[in-house]
Amino acid sequence: MKKSNILLGLAGSLILISLVAWGYQIYNGLIVTNMRNSFSWGLYIATFAFFVGVAAGGLIVSSTVYLFNIEKLKPFTRIASLSAFASILGAGAMILPDMGRVDRIWNIFVYPNFRSPLVWDVIVISAYLLITFLSVYVQLLPDRKKEGSRFLNGWTKAHSQEEVEAFSKKWSKRIALVGLPVAILIHTVTALIFATQASRGWWNTAVLPPDFVSVAVASGTALVLVISLLAVGKEQFDQHKGAFQIMALIVAGSLVVHFFFVSVDLIIHGWWGSTEAEEILSLIFSHYGYLYATELMFPAFTMVLFFTEKGKRSYRALMIGSVLLFIGVFAHRLMLMFPAFNAIPLSLSIPGAGIESWAYPVALGQLQEGMPVFVSSWAYTPTLVEYGVTLLPFGLVLFVVTAALKMYNFLPQKRSM
Amino acid sequence: MRLGMVIDLDRCIGCRSCAVACKSHNAQPPGTWWNRVFTHGASFHQAAVGKDGALQMEYLPVSCQMCDNPACQKVCPSGATYTDERGVVLIDYERCIGCRYCIAACPYGVRQYNWEDPKKAKERAGYEKGYEYGYPADFRDKDGRLVYTPNRPVGVVEKCTFCAQYTSRGEQPACVKGCPGKVRIFGDLDDPSSEVSKLVRKRQTVRLKEELGTSPKVFYLAATKPIR
């Protein structure tokens, strides 16, 4: 119990720091970030995409149980739904500080432009938030009735415990089955925000949405895995070994698919040999080589580890593999931004002058002593304020998961022990 | 009506008067330029590029290309960016939520964001106290949407409006008026007798990044200077 109080305190302070940083940003404008006109999306959107990704796990794990009848995973459907709900809440919260005029956000609902993938994303993410909440709610109903909890639970008074249990069982399944396509959609649509833009060669590929789904299945399942490991603890690890092995296999298997997509994407970017594509490849392999290496090597290590017998049977290996995967996936989300924005779309070749790709300089939007106003690339690194604001989803996820695990029983068979 | 512009690259001397006229008429804050002129291929403006003694120096003015298929408008979640009845792509400064999706979508890098309150930026730039520049009044379109205001709200996107405050009453945009070389010709592309229509019909024109299918309404007459 003590441990959870410390975690709640930590989560609270993360949220507090982020809100203070956000307040500072609202007061001064987004000038306090290091984003500028030529590099207009940064850490916030990358973090948003990261949390959308890890939100997948919930319904992927739950629906695997119902679709493929994998009973071993059943004890973890509650944790899975909880991790999904917390993550999508974090993703939704992360998008708000990126808006320069968050006070006018209602304009999306009053004057929606349905050709904008951003509007579809708002719709599917809201739907997912609702579905994952209902999923958690329905699964907790029987326990909460037993405890006599009244909050949002009043209607169960008129029903017997058996009736409520049957209701919970039936609706958990229904929600999981409706939720699965929505889970796929949140990644597809989030990827389409980027993939639809022909101005950015790095994004403009049909492989981006399926790749987002594969990364989401891997990282989302890994989050369920980590929370489950922590909830179960080392002592009861052996009891649920089978479930953890299946989760590790889902992670490793979807990483295989991910690396397949990455390979075909790189081949298609590189094969034709256009100067634009060459510029992108030089950005990812030389300029941002370390970050790209992180994106590739860490998940690759996890993939191999989770396929080995030793890896998927050891508490520590599963933990380390998952954490490395999160780092890799976060690097993957950051790498959505760097090669896209530092390849200026308006580039020209000048025949006869030996100039194949000259980027037309873009005005930064800021005048500062000693700095050029027009640039053809921008060495974006987040500011302290951006790091501060970015703590918001981390704090929220930690808070929601810890508070829920503390208040309710998310591992059903603990009761019988 | 489809307002468009023809830019005669043969006549451009790279003086950047259009950029300055645009900047001051439209009260752009420091660091913000709706209109840019660079020597293409060069790392410095007015520096020649080439090899083996075959040097060349050409200028390319770039502002909003007023696409008929504007990616910026299609991505805008709140409909703040729209095309008016004259074919001009505009931004409603009271509708924009500042998500900057349009900046990512625009292939021409012409969209500019108000990263801070423009008044603060102007103050910091050290202009003389009380110095205000640009068209002094708000301008709203026929539906009352705010498409020009001398100091834009913090956190919204702005860009060239074809000088909506002037062209809506039949005047020419500031860059056209301010160009000493008569490089820019502005008019209605739907009217076959307009000068822009005639030039587009008769002369070989280039549109930027045409391969992206954006269908800009800004046409460039290619420089014909022979290089020998």
TrEMBL record, chain A:
Keywords: Cell membrane, Membrane, Transmembrane, Transmembrane helix. It is a multi-pass membrane protein. InterPro entries: Electron_transfer_protein (IPR052049), NrfD-like (IPR005614). The keyword Transmembrane helix applies. The chain crosses the membrane at residues 39-67, 79-97, 117-140, 175-195, 215-232, 244-268, 288-307, 319-341, 387-408. The keyword Protein biosynthesis does not apply. This is Polysulfide reductase NrfD. It comes from the Bacteria. Pfam families: NrfD (PF03916). Belongs to the NrfD family. It comes from Desulfosporosinus nitroreducens. It is found in: Cell membrane.
